[in-house]
Amino acid sequence: MPSSLRVRPFRRDDRDQVTELVNAHVAAVVPGLSVSVNTVLSQLQRRPQEFILDPWVAERVTLVAEQRQHVVAAAHLLRYRADAATGADYRDAGVIEWFVFRPPASFWPDSESAADLLMAACLAQLTRWGVSRRYADGQLPAAGICGVPDQWEHIRAAYRRTGFTPAGPAEALLIAAVADLGRPAGAAVPGANVQRTLGECGTRFSARLGDDVIGYVEVDTSLDRPERYARNGGLADLAGLHVAEPYQGSGLEEQLLAHAARWLRMAGVDRVLTYATADDIEETGQLVRHGFQELSRIERGWVHRAVR
């Protein structure tokens, strides 16, 4: 272990270097996406978008590994409360919310040593907290980033070296250009009208046939406040796409996506993200047919073998 390496608590003057590390990981997964320093600092204090989980957090700690006065690795940890008001899956849990470091390179040959030193400090913090279960994740404060994407081989290896294994389902992250959405492949349903309303997660376009909703698509253009992104290039989330079985293959999906695409263009959005279950070939194939392409496979729900 190089003697110049040390782990210490995050300081505010680390913010630019930590944000640079975060953005390097983000950019490897979602093209052209980066977050601001303010976004990173805000997440270290609270996660306003996690309105269910965040109130359960009792304590937060951010650690960095430093070498020659340069931050080469960083991690953010959460301790969840042990009371009955906390959800059972998170009660008395300690979580490495995210863990980042650069892969070994000629100018940082000791980055893997730094990662192992930082991971040892993270596990020591979880031990001091006395939590009954230990989890790890990759929840960086950027759209589409959760779990451990397959582009982060170095993070996956660091987790596995220290006893974490993925227990949750794998997900596929997909992206589409808005210009590629909604190209009709068949006739729309005669008599169906499309209405725009507020949906559960964003703006919903519903196809109605009489009093029946026979399909809908929902898009979220508020993935985060614009001032908190350094650059996002106009990014939205496809929060839902459904057509009732009798109308599948009729061209209704394409019609709904065309309505959503026109709306997104007016909002200045040029790309759309969405998720699919990684092993659901039918779901993924449907999205690909509509113009999406796969960006990453993501492993979620990492659990430490020493504490279940």
From TrEMBL:
Look up the EC number in the record and give it.
2.3.1.-
Q: Keywords on this record?
A: Acyltransferase, Transferase
A GO molecular-function descriptor: acyltransferase activity
List all membrane-crossing ranges: none
Q: Which InterPro entries match?
A: Acyl_CoA_acyltransferase, GNAT_dom
Gene3D superfamilies with a match to the protein in the record: 3.40.630.30
Q: Which residues form the N-acetyltransferase domain?
A: 162-308
Q: What is this protein called?
A: GNAT family N-acetyltransferase
Organism for this UniProt entry: Streptomyces ramulosus
